[in-house]
C-alpha cells in the first residue's frame, strides 16, 4: 500500500470512528434481534453442494475449526463404527456442543467481536485494485474468491489425509478411492464417464510424477477452478464425451443446443439486460455462439473449441464469488454509484455477515419482540 493510500485510510477510518461514536445508536435496536450464527455446513452425503464462504476470514476460521472436529467424528463413524459406541462409558458429545456455543457467544459479544471494527480492518485488504477508498464489484469478487479458495484448499487437504494411506503427503492413483456416492450407484453422474479415473488423475498430476501433492489433489477435486491446462483440457474432453450422443467425437449443433447452451446462457443471463429481441427464435443466439466457438468452421465443436466456455459449463468458484459480490453491492450501495465506501459497509454490516447472521425465527429464546422491529 502506498503512502498516499495509507494516509487516505487512516483519515477515512478516523472519520468513520468519529461519526460512529458521535451518531445516535441508530442500529442498536436493530442489532437486538440479530444473532450471529455459525453454520453447520459439512455434509458427508453431499460434499459438493455449494455454500457461500464467510466474508470475514476470522469467522471462516472459527467455522473451519469447528467443521474439522465434526468431520473427524463423522469420518470415524464411517470408517470405524466400533470406536464410536454411543453407550461406551465416558462417551460425551457435549463438549463439542459447548465449544460451538462459546464460539457463537464470542461472535455475538460486541465487546469482543465488534463488526464495525472488523469492517474498518478488512476494508483496506479488499480495496486494493486500485486502493481508492471504494470497493468495486471486481475487488469484492476477488476478495470472495480468495476466501473461497482458502476454504476449498482446506477441505481438500483434509480429504487428502483419508486417501494418503502411506502418509507421505502425496496421493497415488492406487491409494485414491473414488467417492462412495460414485461407487454405490453405477448410473450416477460420473460413473460411466471419466471422472475419478486414471485419465482424470493423470491430468491433475501437473508435473507427471505419478503422485498428487495437495495443490494437484485440490485441482483434481475441482478441475473447473484449476489453472492447470492439462486438466482443463481433460475437462473439455470429458464434456465432449458426455454430450456426444452420436459418438462422432465432437459436439454438433443439436448436441450443443440440447444441453450445453442452456448452461452457458444461464451463466451469462445476469450480465444481459432484458433486451431479448422477441422476434428472434431461441435458436439464433445459440447458433451465433456455436459459430463463434467453431473456429475451424467444420460445424462441429472439438474439445479445444469448448475451452472458452468450459468455466461456464462447470460454474467455478469465481462465478459464485461474483454472484455474492453482486448481491452485497446491491444491498449495501446506498448512494447507488455501483461501489462501496467504508461508510456504506459499516452502515450495512448484516449484508456482509449475512450468510451467518440471521433474523431469528425462534423468538421465544430471546427477549426482543416486535416493538424493536
Ligand atoms: C464498536 O467499535 C466502535 C468503534 O470503535 C465503537 O464506537 C462501538 O461502541 C463499539 N461497539 C461496542 C458494542 O463496543
Ligand atoms: C454395478 O456394477 C457392478 C460391476 O460392474 C455390478 O456387479 C453391479 O450389479 C452394478 N450395480 C447396479 C446397481 O447396477
Ligand atoms: C505441487 O506440485 C506442483 C507441480 O509440480 C507445484 O506447482 C506445486 O507448487 C506443488 N504444491 C505444493 C504445495 O508443493
Ligand atoms: C441495456 O443495455 C444497453 C447497453 O448494454 C443500454 O443501452 C440499455 O439502456 C439497457 N437497457 C435497460 C432496460 O437497462
Ligand atoms: Ca505431482
Ligand atoms: Ca456506493
Automatic annotation (TrEMBL):
Signal peptide: none annotated. Pfam families: EF-hand_5, SPARC_Ca_bdg. The chain crosses the membrane at residues 6-24. It is found in: Secreted. Residues 198-227, 244-266, 281-316 form the EF-hand domain. GO terms for cellular component: endoplasmic reticulum; extracellular region. It comes from the Eukaryota. Keywords: Calcium, Disulfide bond, Glycoprotein, Membrane, Secreted, Transmembrane, Transmembrane helix. GO terms for molecular function: calcium ion binding. This is EF-hand domain-containing protein. It comes from Hibiscus syriacus (Rose of Sharon).
Amino acid at each position: 500500500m502506498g503512502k498516499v493510500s495509507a494516509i487516505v485510510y487512516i483519515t477515512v477510518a478516523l472519520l468513520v470512528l468519529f461519526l460512529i461514536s458521535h451518531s445516535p445508536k441508530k442500529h442498536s435496536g436493530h442489532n437486538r434481534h440479530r444473532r450471529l450464527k455459525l453454520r453447520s455446513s459439512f455434509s458427508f452425503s453431499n460434499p459438493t453442494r455449494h455454500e457461500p464462504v464467510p466474508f470475514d476470514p476470522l469467522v471462516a476460521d472459527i467455522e473451519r475449526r469447528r467443521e474439522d472436529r465434526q468431520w473427524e467424528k463423522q469420518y470415524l463413524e464411517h470408517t470405524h463404527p466400533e470406536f464410536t459406541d454411543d453407550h461406551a462409558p465416558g462417551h460425551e458429545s457435549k463438549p463439542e456442543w459447548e465449544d460451538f456455543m462459546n464460539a457463537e457467544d464470542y461472535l455475538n459479544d460486541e465487546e469482543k467481536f465488534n463488526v464495525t471494527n472488523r469492517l474498518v480492518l478488512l476494508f483496506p485488504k479488499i480495496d486494493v485494485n486500485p486502493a481508492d477508498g471504494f470497493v468495486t464489484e471486481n475487488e469484492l469478487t476477488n476478495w470472495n474468491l480468495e476466501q473461497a479458495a482458502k476454504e476449498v484448499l482446506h477441505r481438500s487437504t483434509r480429504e487428502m489425509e483419508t486417501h494418503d494411506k502411506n502418509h507421505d503427503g502425496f496421493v497415488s492413483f492406487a491409494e485414491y478411492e473414488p467417492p462412495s456416492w460414485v461407487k454405490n450407484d453405477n448410473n450416477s453422474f460420473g460413473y460411466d464417464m471419466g471422472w475419478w479415473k486414471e485419465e482424470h488423475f493423470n491430468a491433475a498430476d501437473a508435473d507427471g510424477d505419478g503422485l498428487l501433492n495437495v495443490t494437484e489433489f485440490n485441482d483434481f477435486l475441482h478441475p473447473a477452478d484449476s489453472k492447470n491446462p492439462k486438466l482443463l483440457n481433460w475437462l473439455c474432453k470429458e464434456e465432449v464425451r458426455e454430450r456426444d450422443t452420436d459418438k462422432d467425437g465432437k459436439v454438433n449443433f443439436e448436441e450443443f443446443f440440447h444441453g450445453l447452451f442452456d448452461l452457458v446462457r444461464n451463466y451469462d443471463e445476469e450480465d444481459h439486460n432484458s433486451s431479448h429481441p422477441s422476434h428472434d427464435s431461441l435458436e439464433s443466439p445459440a447458433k451465433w455462439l456455436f459459430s463463434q466457438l467453431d473456429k475451424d468452421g467444420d460445424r462441429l465443436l472439438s474439445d479445444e473449441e469448448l475451452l472458452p466456455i468450459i468455466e461456464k459449463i462447470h460454474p467455478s468458484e469465481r462465478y459464485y464469488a461474483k454472484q455474492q459480490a453482486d448481491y452485497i453491492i446491491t444491498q449495501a450501495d446506498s448512494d447507488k454509484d455501483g461501489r462501496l465506501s467504508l461508510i456504506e459497509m459499516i452502515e450495512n454490516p448484516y449484508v456482509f455477515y449475512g450468510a451467518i447472521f440471521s433474523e431469528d425465527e425462534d423468538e421465544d429464546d430471546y427477549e426482543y419482540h416486535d416493538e424493536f422491529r
